[in-house]
Structures are given as C-alpha cells and as structure tokens.
Design a protein that fits this description.
Blueprint lengths: L12 E2 L9 E5 L6 H5 L10 E5 L3 E3 L2 E3 L14 H15 L7 E6 L1 H12 L6 E5 L11 H7 L2 E7 L7 H14 L1 E7 L7 H14 L1
Helix pairs in contact: 2-3
C-alpha cells in the first residue's frame, strides 16, 4: 500500500522561522506550480504573520497539484483526492507550533483548497483569500456552520480570466455570499495576480489578523 500523500516539510518556504504565538499565513499554489510560485508575493504582504508557502503533494508535469483534474469543467466535483489533500494540509498545520490565528491564501486550484479547508474546519481559520479560484461542487459537513459564522473571505479575480469557466464563477458568486463575509474584487487581468490586487490583499490581511 502506498503512503497517503502528505506535505513535504523540506519543501515549505518560510518568510522567516516560525515563531510561536505569531499569526500564520498559509499559501497554497495553483495546479502544476510549486511552493516558489506564491513566494514571490510575500514582499507585498504584511510582516505581522509568519508566512509559509506549501508544495502540493501530487506531482503534476513539472510542478505539483492538490488533486488531479483534466480541465476545470470536469473533475471539480468533490472527491477522495480532495479529501486527501485537505487532510494533508491540516496534518501539517496541526504539527506546527501554536499560532493564535491562521489565515489561508490560495491561487486558482489553491484557492479552491482554501475554501475546502474552511469548509472542513469552519472555526479553524481567521479568513480565506481566494485569488482566481472557485468553490468546488457539493455540500460539506461544515457548510451549515459557515452560514452562521460567515468568516471573512476575499475573492479576487480577473475579468479576462479564461482558465476558470464561467459556470464556476457563477457557482462561486452564489455560494460565497451565503457562507462568508465576502469582499469581492475584480481586476482588468487574465489568470494572474496584479499589484493592485496584492495591495487589497495586504489591507484585508491587516484588517483580519
């Protein structure tokens, strides 16, 4: 039997050594990328939290992914692969020194993962930042609690993004307002992150840590 996928601690990129009792911000890259992909945005973010950029556990071409998928139109339904990825991230988080507050920031597939983590552990995170991401189909055990808690969620996306299908954007637009305290922003960009967006993200982090 093959071991269950896990987060490789040797592949985590830290903004600085983790300090107990400091906020922790966890970065989750997109499909086919790696831990260095989002590390480039760290200089644009506040210095209050310790920031950790994780590598997804599944090899995917020259990079890594959180769960297998052929296209965003297919394979976005919840599956055992998504559950495995959620468990891997939560096990890694639970193994870290205590942080009084933990935030999530994900891009594309990593944004979908940020929402899934929030749905799995509604009281476990201060907020989720979803950049060019989407919500995965189906109901979760934590969804009812999220409807009551309404944790802060920042959803930023490009109006010229052709990677995430329109149907996914529509589903996410319907789901987020009923399960979060949503801040939604759009930018004149494709499937990428702009400095204007990062400025909004930095403010959001300061407001909610």
């Amino acid at each position: 039997m093959q071991p269950s996928p896990s987060i490789d601690p040797r592949a985590v990129l830290w903004s600085e050594p983790i300090v107990p009792d400091r906020p922790l911000l966890v970065l989750l890259h997109g499909r086919g990328a790696n831990e260095a992909d989002l590390a480039g945005i760290v200089p644009f973010l506040p210095r209050e939290p310790v920031i950790a950029s994780l590598r997804a556990p599944i090899a995917d071409g020259r990079g890594y992914s959180w769960y297998p998928m052929s296209t965003p139109e297919r394979a976005t339904a919840f599956s055992a692969d998504v559950e495995t990825a959620i468990r891997a991230v939560l096990e890694w988080i639970d193994a870290q020194p205590h942080s009084p507050s933990i935030g999530l920031l994900g891009f594309s597939q990593g944004g979908a993962m940020a929402l899934e983590l929030l749905r799995k552990r509604p009281r476990g995170f201060a907020f989720a930042i979803v950049l060019s991401g989407f919500v995965i189909d189906g109901e979760r055990s934590g969804d009812v609690e999220l409807e009551t808690l309404r944790p802060p969620v920042f959803w930023g996306r490009g109006i010229r993004d052709t990677v995430i299908p329109t149907i996914r954007i529509g589903q996410t637009s319907e789901w987020l307002p009923t399960h979060s305290t949503l801040e939604e922003r759009t930018y004149d960009v494709a499937h990428s992150i702009t400095e204007d967006e990062l400025a909004d993200v930095a403010r959001f982090i300061k407001d909610h840590f």
